[in-house]
Structures are given as structure tokens and as C-alpha cells.
Amino acid sequence: MSDSVSEHRPPAAADSAATLRCEQVVREYTRGSDSLFSRGSDAPTVRALDGVSISVSTGEFVAIAGPSGSGKSTLLHLLAALDTPTRGDVRIAGTDVRSLSNRGRTKLRRDTIGIVFQHFHLLPSLSARGNVALPLIERGVSKRDRRARAEELLERVGLGDRAGHKPGELSGGEQQRVAIARALVSDPAVLIADEPTGELDTETGQRVLDYIEQTATERAVVVATHDEHVIERADRVVRLRDGHVVSDG
Amino acid sequence: MARRHRLFGVVGLAGRRVLGRLRTTSSKQVLLSVLGVALAVTLMTTVSGIALGLGAENAIQSEGVDYWVVPEASTASSVAVSVGSPQLGDTHAITDRLSRDERVDYATPVQTQLVTLAPEGGSTDEYVLAAGIIPPEEPTSVVGVSTEALTPGDPHYANGSYDGPRTGELVLNDAAAELLGVSAGDEVTASVGGSKAAFTVADVREGSLSSGVGPVPVALVHLSELQTMTGSTEGDLADQLLVSTDSAGVRSDIEALYPRTSVVTQTGLAVRGASTSSLPLAMAAVSLVVAVLVGVLFVATMMGLEVNADRRNLAVLSAMGYRTSSQMLLVVAETVVVATVGGVVGVVAGIGGIHLTNAITRELLGVQVALFDPVLVGYSVAVAALIGLVSSVYPAWLTWRTPTLEAMSHD
């Protein structure tokens, strides 16, 4: 894997073959729904997404852009099977998310989705190798195979010599590369990244983008971002405003 | 196979997370949980050691003795305290009747009493456990001390009149002789309450009554001479009856001698301490219950707070595809590991507590009352693991109801 890859990729495949597909998705939240005293039918609702339709195919790198409160994170949560829509369909690798139980969505995430968080969310007590191998524990992979696979991924993101270091001993860019390696260790069909360059300087952010871009040849990649550098490098940019798609292309 | 790898993987992850947090002391909750369990286990180990010491020495040990007759409520007849406990009455007559039975080789009542002995011309006196017995014709050993130097029988008793010739003989074990600085032929004065009597050291014998981690100073005397000092001539009282016999059939006769007594076999000596001694058993049981209750409340609260502080990481695991059951297993394993680490610390401190207790009682009473047994190590660590297991229910429940999305935004 080179540090700078910016290949031209084919346009998105037809919707029916999309790895990720949202159709007329509405997501509403009830304000104060976590309170014991405000669960009445008159509790105010907030519509975070309103009739959103997008599709992402394998090999596509799609950026979701928009101002704060536009619905980027909500859409990302739906595409990562962390949430379910109030109305509309969300299909991930052909599976209707609304038809799945909580347990089913957990399995879908385990088998199909890799997630990169803005704040890395690495476990501080584990080494880089241990963090990368985390998803493999739940998949029942043997210790030896977990170690080998984690080291292979760390090698691919240029951190082969940092495998034994704890997150606190790594720079922000290195931590994000560990997080990317962790998201990819199960070879998921979908990679979801939430502001992956949000806490990095420009140069480090560009390197992280290189790694994400490279992985898009084998999977569908969706990145929520404010960062113009990410937007420039994406195959497609979906712009959201007030829960609506205002442009897609 | 995959399931096994997952199970071991999650448990291993729990261990690494706990040790990581302990190493960096980044989590006060984990540290406090360890200290809480350690404190509870320390107290439990120390109290259990004292209970073991009391329970193990409740019977007067003697070679060749096959049965002990002890009052059922004989809870206070420890090496340190025998006054006030239920006693057997009419013991000379009963013993005489037993001795006439051909199946019985030897029988003697035993009265134990903590007395002070002062060597002639000495400036200080020392506490010694006096055991009053009826020495047999054929020498045997009682409380680990040979009766050989004592005149057989109990001449001072004189059929209950207590006006027979007083032998004034006393056999010391080496611990008592060393403590008093006396040897065979020396004169000593024994005192109990306001009563005093002069004795001659007839012999010093090796042999000890083990209690705790050291020997107890012991003096063998004739029963009636001790009874006269302790005021238990009225009713001819003694604490226990020792019976040596090869016949198993004699047990029923022994059991019929006294109501509300227990007859214990030699092989059941260790068990007897627990079965007939309610004080040590109660002490051990209460210490166990208190340790488990305090430990569970403490660990459950602390680990509950820890789960709350760690909910974002749990949510990240959920986002990676960790089942709720795996997350709960992780938290349960972490809680058990934390409690077990606390248990190990507690055992070490508890052993120190046993030694400290013995040092204090040796200084104040001249005896050691606590006993360390290697079994205590396994017992205490097992209790600590039990504390972890029981208290893990609460943090596991918190994990189960942690909403992934909400926790992801928790910082």
C-alpha cells in the first residue's frame, strides 16, 4: 500500500446492486425520551432526517457533508446499523436493517461493517496490536491468528514497528491509523468513518485519507466530514441540510 | 472451537484491562474495589485463623485415647479460657466405673485451667495451662506430656473427701519449663484467683500442645489437687473425659454416661472442632458472611461506577459487533479478577493479622490463639472470587442496559 493513492474509480453501480442503500429514510427523535416523565404522546419530536435516499456501491468513496445539525451523524449511525429509521428502508449488503433485532444488527456490524471514530476510541490498556485484534475476539478467531492478522494490518498502515505500543504512546495520526486497521481487520464490506481527520493536522489527515481511499477499492466507504480535503478526494459528495439531501454527485 | 476462542479471548481481555488499570492506577474504582475486598478478606482470614485456633484446641489431645466426651455447649473450653463452660460432674466415680470395664484400657477426666506459676524465689509469674488428670498405672501422655512422673491414681481425692495426701507433683512441658526457667526438682507456686498451692516440678517433658504458630506452656497435675485450687470439688467437676479403648462397642456406653454431651472419635478430632464447638464455628461463619456482604456491597458499587465510567468503551465494543452477552461476560470476568486480586492481597494481610493476633495474645495472655492453615489461602481466595461473582450481577446488569448510541457520545 502506497502513501499516496488517488486512482480514478468507476461511477456508482446501479442502486439495486448497492452495498448501502437508504430509501426515503426518516429518523425522528422524541425530546426527553430518556426521561421518566416526558413519554407522553405530546412530547415534542425532532426530525433529524427527512426523506433521505442515497446508495453506495462497493468501490465507492462517498463523503457526507453538511453543517452541524444537518443529519450527517444520524445518517452515519443508520448506515452503520447502530440505529434504525423511523420510516423508510435502510439496506446494508442486501439486509433490511429495520427487520433485524438488536442482536441481528450487532451481528451485521460484526460481519459486514468497520467503523472509524473521530476520537479514535482505542482501549488505553491494550497495545496497538491488541486494539486492532479486538473485533477478531468476538468472531472467535484463535489468539495466534488474531495476532498475525493484527500485525499484518498494522504493517499495511505503516505501524508495523509500533505494534506493542499503547495508545498513549502514539501520536494522533498513529492512533487514527490504528483505528483504521481495527476497522479493516475483519475485512468488512462497508467502512464507515465519522470525521476521521477531525482531530488531525492537514498533513497527517492527508496520510490517513490515503489509507481510507486505498481501502475503498474493495468495499463501500462512507465518510462524514467537514473537511474540504476529504470532500475533494471523494468519488461522490452527498450534501445534507436540515435532514434533507441537497446535492448528490 | 470459535466459541472457546471467543470465551478465552474475552476473559483474557478482561484480565488485560484490569491489570492495565491497576498498573496505571487510572481507575480509582478498580483500586478501591481491590482494597475493599482485601480488607474484607483480611478480617475474614484473621478471624477464621482465630476460630481455627480455638476450635482445634478444644479437646485435650492424648496418645492412645480413642474417645473424647465433651459437653455439647463446650464452647469456651479453649486453651485460654475454661472457666464458665459447662462441665461434667461426678467424674471420679464415673471414671472408676469406666475403668472397671474390661474393654476400656484407660480413662481419665480432665480439668483445664489457666493458672499462674511462680518459681520459688522468682520475681515474676507466668500463665500456664494446667491440666488436672488421674494418672494411670501405665504411663501415657496427655496434652502431649507424659504422665510417667506423676503418682498413679489421685490420692488427694480420697473417695470424695479431698483430705487424702497431697502429692504436690507437677509435670511441665518444655515450653512451660523454659518460660518459668525451672527444671525437675524445683519448687513452684500455683495461683488461681485467690487460691495458692505449692508444687514440685516432678519432671520436664518434651511435647507441646500446639496452638496457633507456637507451643502452649502446659502443666500436668493430679485432678483433685487442681479441683481443690479451682473450687470445683463440689460436684467433682471436670471439663472432659478421655477414654482409651480398642473396642468400638464401648462408644454407646460412653454416650450414655452423661446427657447433652458429645462423644468424638480420635479420627474425628478435626471435625469435632467444627461440629461440637459452636463459638469457633460461629466466629468463622459470621466472618464469612460479613466478608461476603461487605465485599459484595463494596465491589458492586465500585464496579457499577466503573461500568458507568467505561460505558463509552463498552459502546465501542458493541459498535464493533460485540454481543451484549460478550460485554456482560467481560464485565463479570473483570469483576471476578478485581475481587480475586483483592483476595490475594487480603490473604497476605490476613496471615499478617494472624501473626499480629498471636503476638498480642502472647504478650497479654502468654498463649497464641490463632492458627494459620494453608487451607485458609485457598478458602480466602475462593471467597474473594465468590464476592466477585455475586457482585458482578449489578455491573453486568448496567452493561446490559447501556444504550450503545447514547454511550458513544459519552465523554
UniProtKB/TrEMBL annotation, chain A:
<dbReference type="GO" id="GO:0098796">
    <property type="term" value="C:membrane protein complex"/>
</dbReference>
<keyword id="KW-0813">Transport</keyword>
<dbReference type="Pfam" id="PF00005">
    <property type="entry name" value="ABC_tran"/>
</dbReference>
<dbReference type="InterPro" id="IPR003439">
    <property type="entry name" value="ABC_transporter-like_ATP-bd"/>
</dbReference>
<dbReference type="InterPro" id="IPR017871">
    <property type="entry name" value="ABC_transporter-like_CS"/>
</dbReference>
<dbReference type="GO" id="GO:0005886">
    <property type="term" value="C:plasma membrane"/>
</dbReference>
<dbReference type="GO" id="GO:0022857">
    <property type="term" value="F:transmembrane transporter activity"/>
</dbReference>
<dbReference type="InterPro" id="IPR017911">
    <property type="entry name" value="MacB-like_ATP-bd"/>
</dbReference>
<keyword id="KW-0547">Nucleotide-binding</keyword>
<protein>
    <submittedName>
        <fullName>ABC transporter ATP-binding protein</fullName>
    </submittedName>
</protein>
<dbReference type="InterPro" id="IPR027417">
    <property type="entry name" value="P-loop_NTPase"/>
</dbReference>
<dbReference type="InterPro" id="IPR015854">
    <property type="entry name" value="ABC_transpr_LolD-like"/>
</dbReference>
<dbReference type="GO" id="GO:0016887">
    <property type="term" value="F:ATP hydrolysis activity"/>
</dbReference>
<keyword id="KW-0067">ATP-binding</keyword>
<feature type="domain" description="ABC transporter">
    <location>
        <begin position="20"/>
        <end position="249"/>
    </location>
</feature>
<dbReference type="InterPro" id="IPR003593">
    <property type="entry name" value="AAA+_ATPase"/>
</dbReference>
<dbReference type="GO" id="GO:0005524">
    <property type="term" value="F:ATP binding"/>
</dbReference>
From TrEMBL, chain B:
<dbReference type="Pfam" id="PF02687">
    <property type="entry name" value="FtsX"/>
</dbReference>
<keyword id="KW-0472">Membrane</keyword>
<dbReference type="InterPro" id="IPR051125">
    <property type="entry name" value="ABC-4/HrtB_transporter"/>
</dbReference>
<keyword id="KW-1133">Transmembrane helix</keyword>
<feature type="domain" description="ABC3 transporter permease C-terminal">
    <location>
        <begin position="287"/>
        <end position="399"/>
    </location>
</feature>
<dbReference type="InterPro" id="IPR003838">
    <property type="entry name" value="ABC3_permease_C"/>
</dbReference>
<feature type="transmembrane region" description="Helical">
    <location>
        <begin position="376"/>
        <end position="400"/>
    </location>
</feature>
<feature type="transmembrane region" description="Helical">
    <location>
        <begin position="328"/>
        <end position="356"/>
    </location>
</feature>
<keyword id="KW-0812">Transmembrane</keyword>
<dbReference type="GO" id="GO:0005886">
    <property type="term" value="C:plasma membrane"/>
</dbReference>
<keyword id="KW-1003">Cell membrane</keyword>
<feature type="transmembrane region" description="Helical">
    <location>
        <begin position="281"/>
        <end position="307"/>
    </location>
</feature>
<protein>
    <submittedName>
        <fullName>ABC transporter permease</fullName>
    </submittedName>
</protein>
<feature type="transmembrane region" description="Helical">
    <location>
        <begin position="30"/>
        <end position="54"/>
    </location>
</feature>
